[in-house]
Design brief:
The chain has about 200 residues and is an alpha/beta fold. The protein has two domains: about 50 residues, Helicase, Ruva Protein, domain 3, CATH 1.10.8.420; about 120 residues, Dna Topoisomerase Vi A Subunit, Chain: A, domain 2 (3-Layer(aba) Sandwich), CATH 3.40.1360.10. Helices cover about 40% and strands about 15% of the residues. It contains seven helices and seven strands, in the order αααβββαβαβαβαβ. The protein has a five-stranded mixed β-sheet with strand order 4-3-5-6-7. A two-stranded antiparallel sheet has the order 1-2. β3, α4 and β4 form a beta-alpha-beta unit. α1 packs across α2.
Length: about 200
Amino acid sequence: MSLPKSLQKLIAQFDKLPGIGPKTSEKLVFHLLNRPKEDLKEFADSLLDAKEQITICSVCFNFSDSIPCSICKDSNRDKETLCVVAETQDVQAIEKTNNYQGLYHVLQGTINPPENITPDKLKIKELQQRIKKDQPNELILALNNDIAGETTSLYLIKLLQDSNINISRLAKGLPSGSEIEYADDITLGYALKDRKKI
């Protein structure tokens, strides 16, 4: 028996989400259909509210509901240290460790030529301008330990080698091929504490 078209269409929408396959999409759709209509309305309203209210910080390019974001305008943060991450989720993962008090710069991706993601499509030029303007003492490259993360790290190291800034990377406590977003707090905390100067 084939599913009604409205269900097929909804399952197809869930299929577009990262890390969700057809079986999980079906499971989520059937779960949602069994929820009260009020719950579904609240879910849909929350999603639309987030889309309307969330913006990108003009300083660090993190998701925010204010400009600058709460981290950038926090006077207690260490302005001398700048942590470069690929995505907003990485900021959240690092914040949960309670081991970092500096600022962030979100590249909004990593260099990945097969997917047509080149350096000019990332917030690299803005990073250079920020380093020149704010002159932080240390730049931490907190990128995923995979091919795209490694490529981006090497590109940034070469690009910034003449800058008067100490560049470090997360310690290799993170397993190869892992993503920062999914690392446990303890592993990520140790990786931050044990970062090495390049």
